[in-house]
């Protein structure tokens, strides 16, 4: 055959393939979510998320040390509070679990980037992400409470706040509150296009945050929609978001790509609990190779256009990348 163009030429050796690789993962792409609980000496593995734990503060410190040893430089904190009420007031207590964790980590690991997930669902007794009255989520009343949480996180040492509630107007409200209290340098990573997804199942078991009644479809986005994601992102940018996010990642690579094509802001994608759990479960059965599949998934998320990947594989993937 007289073929002039032979794409296989660039695949002939490992070094050549490395040279022309378009997407390269690195530990600095990853953010590791961590679940903090009250108590001492607690390191309880989350059954549906093997390799992830409920950690008391002493164990959190150990966990962070080992994350940093493999090159992870950013974490996202989720708290499991002692008590829940209708409003979710334990979310903004000065000595709440996330606030305590922030104080500790800021002091012990000044170079670690501390991101907090900002939401009410772990703190309300009804499990919804907002103020609930007569079965309805009250958007504007919720904003007041979200701002209280943001301020308490900032005061405790958070570097970046990531609101995941999907209320309208929350980014403006939070930005405003932070600025008025002289936290102008704290950045906001907005869960902008957050879908009402069944892939959050394992997380809700882990965070004890499943809604008691109903679902989140009046505030999280319909998985069928794509243009709406751009409208949500537009609003968050107008309101002052520094980083935008698409969540989940794997079934939403098209949304990640559209966001990357349309906006210049750093783009995060959340590789959520269900995406992790299904790989873990299949790997446990010996049906797939966890390492290869996980790295392929993470590569696809970055290839689609995400600059930042929030993933339960963060530390494991960082180790794999060194091999
Ligand atoms: C809080 C929140 C959720 C996740 C991140 N922040 C759960 C939800 O919206 O129900 C999901 C993370 C995951 O599944 O890994 N609102």
TrEMBL record:
Zn(2+) binds at residues 119, 121, 129. Pfam families: ALAD. GO terms for cellular component: cytosol. 5-aminolevulinate 2 binds at residues 273, 312. Catalyzes an early step in the biosynthesis of tetrapyrroles. Binds two molecules of 5-aminolevulinate per subunit, each at a distinct site, and catalyzes their condensation to form porphobilinogen. It is an enzyme of class 4 (lyase). Homooctamer. Keywords: Heme biosynthesis, Lyase, Magnesium, Metal-binding, Porphyrin biosynthesis, Zinc. It comes from Halanaerobium praevalens (strain ATCC 33744 / DSM 2228 / GSL). This is Delta-aminolevulinic acid dehydratase. Pathway: Porphyrin-containing compound metabolism; protoporphyrin-IX biosynthesis; coproporphyrinogen-III from 5-aminolevulinate: step 1/4. Mg(2+) binds at residue 232. Belongs to the ALAD family. NCBIfam families: PRK09283.1. One of its GO terms (molecular function) is porphobilinogen synthase activity. GO terms for biological process: protoporphyrinogen IX biosynthetic process. It catalyses: 2 5-aminolevulinate = porphobilinogen + 2 H2O + H(+). 5-aminolevulinate 1 binds at residues 204, 216.
């Amino acid at each position: 055959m007289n073929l002039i163009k032979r794409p296989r030429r660039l695949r002939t050796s490992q070094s050549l393939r490395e040279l022309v690789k378009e997407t390269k993962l690195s530990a600095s792409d990853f953010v590791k979510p961590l679940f903090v609980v009250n108590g001492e000496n607690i390191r309880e593995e989350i059954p549906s998320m093997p390799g992830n734990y409920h950690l008391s503060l002493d164990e959190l410190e150990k966990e962070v040390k080992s994350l940093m040893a493999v090159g992870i430089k950013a974490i996202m904190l989720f708290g499991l509070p002692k008590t829940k009420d209708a409003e979710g007031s334990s979310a903004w207590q000065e000595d709440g679990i996330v606030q305590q964790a922030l104080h500790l980590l800021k002091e012990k690991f000044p170079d670690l980037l501390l991101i907090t997930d900002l939401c009410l669902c772990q703190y309300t007794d009804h499990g919804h992400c907002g103020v609930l009255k007569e079965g309805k989520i009250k958007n504007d009343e919720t904003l007041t409470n979200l701002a209280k949480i943001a301020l308490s996180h900032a005061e405790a040492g958070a570097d970046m706040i990531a609101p995941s509630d999907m209320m309208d107007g929350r980014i403006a409200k939070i930005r405003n509150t932070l600025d008025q209290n002289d936290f102008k340098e704290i950045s906001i990573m907005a869960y902008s296009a957050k879908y009402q997804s069944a892939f959050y199942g394992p997380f809700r078991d882990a965070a004890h945050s499943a809604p008691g009644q109903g679902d989140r479809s009046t505030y999280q986005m319909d998985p069928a929609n794509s243009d709406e994601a751009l409208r949500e992102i537009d609003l968050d940018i107008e309101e002052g978001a520094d980083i935008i996010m698409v969540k989940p990642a794997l079934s939403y690579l098209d949304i990640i790509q559209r966001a990357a094509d349309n906006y210049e802001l750093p783009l995060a994608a959340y590789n959520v609990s269900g995406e992790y759990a299904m790989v873990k479960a299949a790997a446990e059965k010996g049906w797939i190779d966890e390492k290869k599949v996980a790295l392929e998934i993470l590569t696809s998320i970055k290839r689609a256009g995400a600059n930042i990947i929030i993933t339960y594989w963060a530390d494991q993937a960082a180790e794999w990348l060194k091999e």
